[in-house]
Amino acid sequence: MTDPQLVLTERVQQALGSAFGPEHATEDPLIRPSQFADYQANVALSLAKRLRRAPREVAQAIADHLDTADVSVEVSGPGFLNLTLRDGWVAEQAAQRLLDERIGVPQPAPQTVIVDYSAPNAAKEMHVGHLRTTIVGDTLARTHEHLGNQVIRQNHLGDWGTQFGMLIEHLLDIGEEEALGMLAAGDGNAFYQAARHKFDNDPEFQQRSRRRVPLLQGGDPETLRLWREFIEYSNRYFRKVYRTLGVTLTDDDIAGESMYNPMLPDVCDELERTGVAEISEGALCVFPPGFKGRDDQPLPLIVRKSDGGYGYATTDLAAIRYRVRDLKADRILYVVGATQSLHFQMVFAAARTAGWLHDDVKAEHVQIGSVLGSDGKMFKTRSGESIKLTDLLDEAVVRAEAVIADRGYDPEARRQIARQVGMGAVKYADLSVSHDSEYVFDFDRMLALTGNTGPYLQYATARIRSIFRNGGIDPQSVTGPITLGHPAERALALQLLGFGSVVAAVAQLSEPHRLCNYLFDVAQTFTSFYESCPVLKAEEESVRQSRLALSALTLRVLLRGLDLLGIEVPERM
Ligand code: ARG
Question: Which family does it belong to (predicted)?
């Protein structure tokens, strides 16, 4: 373990143990980056309060017991411990990182992590909201995989439910070929809206639609065939979006709502038999403790409607039971819109009462904030229709072409770069803000070559590559030793050592924006380094080698980090 913050945590804990007794050896030393040193430990302040002693005195006691082989310590202010690592230590660790295939990323005991993400609805167009859950979920899946966890992706497609009665009847009305063509082209929304309009205005159509539902649920072969065609065609569209984006979801990850349909009667039986659910006004309901509606009445989670039908909640209960019992999940991440927060709280609570979710399993709703248009409302076209994703992605590529410099690439290469930059911009915009915040979709901002954007990081990475290209050097072949003569060299080395714990934090907290911020800092620190420290033109050979080593390590960290974000880096830019 060579991450500076972790090393210092361990050291301060040892000092806490020997100064105040072993019960303090597991205390969080509260180590933070500092303006006045590399890091500062703030533990003395809180500990002093509990021990009823003067903070500076407590800080001094910690300092006196600290192993100072690689770190110097100074008590400052009201009782902060300023910690500065020895230059030689930083340099050695950085050189070792170059030899470490994982660049410092830990490999903890593997867990089975289920990532439920993307989950568009077959009946409708995939909208920007699904784009964001897809992109954030994909980064979480990649990151857990990289940490050595067994990742099971679950694309919980909306591919079942009573609305399919209506959709199948509409499909028959306009003709199979015409209907399927619309779905394959991503016009699911128009299709859905037309069906809905007829359903609301044409009693005969409404009747037919209702009669179709039991046929679907009962497994009538012709109805099932039409339903399957329907799903297959909209999946074809989703697949195209995933491919364009470079998202790792495949057909094997599809575990849509329809998959759980056969389990629903048994789910309800078990809930009823064990007394977890009860009949209320004809419907089978769970009343998870602590959920109150209007008038302070207990809030029901309806698992079987009074007409015998099942709903979204029933399916999610079946899914959670399956994921824990059959897939043996240790952790389940639901990367889904923040608007579904209450739904998941209630489903988790009900599953806990049922004993399906127990203490050894963590279920988490990774809440995804809405993507807004420039008017501050849900992102739509001017005429109010939701935007076709493939159109949006195409536009990103066209706009990216205008942003990338003209260096005489052949048209094919140029298109490739534009695709990478366009997709990088869209993905990074979703990843770089905290996942639960709303943000305004703005092509100009996300495609900017300066600031915390995907294209800026791609550009910064491509530029380091060009240093090696210009020097005729393979960055893979560069090794240490690293020497830290200039403060900018030291700052860069120290920062690069933090990569592993950032990646671990992304997985632990489900917060990809931490990796974005870190990579942005790395790129900026590299820029300062490059401005004050010539690399290829360094005067001394040993300095040149050391700076090449720092550049190679920076390149590897940026490439690995962007790869975890699912962002490709053009060879040149
Ligand atoms: N299809 C749903 C929607 O578009 C999202 C499903 C999320 N996953 C889940 N297990 N409920 O809102």
Answer: Belongs to the class-I aminoacyl-tRNA synthetase family.
